């Protein structure tokens, strides 16, 4: 959004934007001022936890996130600081409280974190990766070391998400962006196991209301039964899974979120409306579907096309919920 770019320019850099509660609130609310959305999602980044552990996070234009002190050895893990949720990550909680106050009950606020495996890949690689050679090298050559790191991250993520809930987040999403690069066996051992640990430790009711949890593994459509067994309330789907098949598999156990290919938003309004209708019809009548993109929105998308999407979801979903 142009208004987001203006706010980011005002902040000076991405991390300052994340770490300034009033600006994070401003950016969180911007999409709701343009589009008829059903929820707000906290503006932050999944790498706030590794940053608070002392890895020296920077965002370089055109290169993405980078850590100046990656984690490669047992000594590196032993040096990791355990973040204090108010002293080290209080800016996130302040943003949550500010956003809740500004929303004033109009829509719920969703908080989030990266999964332990996904966070670990960035921490070990030192940046994003195409082949995850260092992360998988640790997995296969030093599995006990990786388990130590993942256990530390799981406990920290649980505490982080619970702090968000106490500050006012009304739903929680765990983003396992890189779980899909693992074999089924390794996914269960090194990713799902630790998300299960997080879910087991989460506050599930706050202020008299249930706090729903959504677990999203990109590329994880073949593991939906395992995901449903964690106790999550919903599974996020990317566009490589047919939502009709996902509903047949686990729709009686959990809700489903997704799953439009974000690239559809480069198409014409007519094509976007067609795709929305197709996905809604593929899920079919009844409750248990949260329409969403199958992953993050591309930065060069025309905002007018997002409005076409949102309006089409409201228009075409009503007959399915009568």
List the helices and strands and how they pair.
Layout: H1 2-11, H2 14-19, H3 21-34, E1 40-41, H4 48-52, E2 57-60, E3 64-67, H5 74-79, H6 90-103, E4 109-114, H7 116-125, H8 133-141, H9 143-167, E5 171-176, H10 184-201, E6 205-206, E7 209-210, E8 213-217, H11 224-228, E9 234-236, H12 243-250, E10 255-260, H13 269-283, E11 289-293, H14 303-317
Parallel strand pairs: 1-4, 4-5, 5-8, 8-9, 9-10, 10-11
Antiparallel strand pairs: 2-3, 6-7
Structure write-up:
By secondary structure, the protein is α/β, with parallel strands linked by helices. It folds into two domains: 2-236, Alpha-Beta Barrel (TIM Barrel), CATH 3.20.20; 259-322, no CATH class. 50% of the residues lie in helices and 14% in strands. It has 14 helices and eleven strands. Strand 10 (255-260), helix 13 (269-283) and strand 11 (289-293) form a beta-alpha-beta unit. The radius of gyration is 19 Å and the shape is globular.
Structure in a nutshell:
This protein has 322 residues and is α/β, with parallel strands linked by helices. The protein has 14 helices and eleven strands.
What's the count of strands?
Answer: 11
Structural class: alpha/beta
What low-confidence regions span 5 or more consecutive residues with pLDDT below 50? none
Helix content: 40-55%
Biggest β-sheet: strands ordered side by side in the sheet? 1-4-5-8-9-10-11
* Strand residues, percent: 5-15%
Provide the residue-averaged pLDDT. Answer: 95
Apparent shape: globular
Number of separate structural domains: 2
The appropriate CATH architecture of the largest domain is Alpha-Beta Barrel
Helix count from the secondary structure assignment: 14
């Amino acid at each position: 959004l142009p208004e987001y770019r203006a706010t980011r320019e005002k902040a000076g850099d991405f991390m300052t934007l994340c770490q300034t509660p009033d600006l994070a609130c401003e950016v969180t609310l911007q999409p709701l001022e343009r589009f008829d959305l059903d929820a707000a999602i906290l503006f932050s980044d999944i790498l706030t936890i590794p940053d608070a552990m002392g890895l020296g996070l920077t965002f370089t234009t055109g290169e993405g996130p980078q850590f100046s002190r990656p984690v490669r050895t047992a000594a590196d893990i032993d040096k990791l600081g355990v973040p204090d949720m108010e002293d080290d990550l209080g800016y996130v909680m302040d943003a949550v409280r500010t956003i809740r106050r500004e929303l004033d009950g109009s829509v719920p606020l969703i908080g989030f974190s990266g999964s332990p495996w996904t966070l670990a890949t960035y921490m070990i690689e030192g940046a994003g990766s195409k082949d995850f050679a260092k992360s998988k090298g640790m997995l296969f050559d030093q599995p006990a070391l990786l388990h130590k790191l993942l256990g530390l991250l799981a406990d920290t993520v649980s505490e982080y998400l619970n702090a968000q809930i106490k500050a006012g987040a009304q739903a929680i999403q765990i983003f396992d962006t890189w779980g899909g690069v693992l074999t089924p066996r390794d996914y269960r051992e090194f990713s799902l196991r630790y998300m299960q640990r997080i879910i087991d430790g989460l506050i599930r009711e706050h202020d008299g209301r249930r706090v729903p949890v959504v677990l999203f593994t990109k590329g994880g459509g073949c593991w939906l039964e395992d995901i449903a067994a964690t106790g999550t309330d919903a599974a996020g789907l990317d566009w490589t899974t047919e939502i009709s098949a996902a509903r047949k598999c686990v729709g009686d156990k959990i809700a489903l979120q997704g799953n439009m290919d974000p690239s559809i938003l480069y198409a014409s309004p007519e094509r976007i409306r067609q795709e929305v209708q197709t996905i809604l019809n593929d899920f079919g009548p009844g409750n248990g579907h949260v329409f969403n993109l199958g992953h993050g929105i591309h930065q060069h998308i025309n905002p007018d096309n997002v409005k076409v999407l949102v309006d089409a979801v409201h228009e075409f979903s009503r007959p399915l919920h009568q």
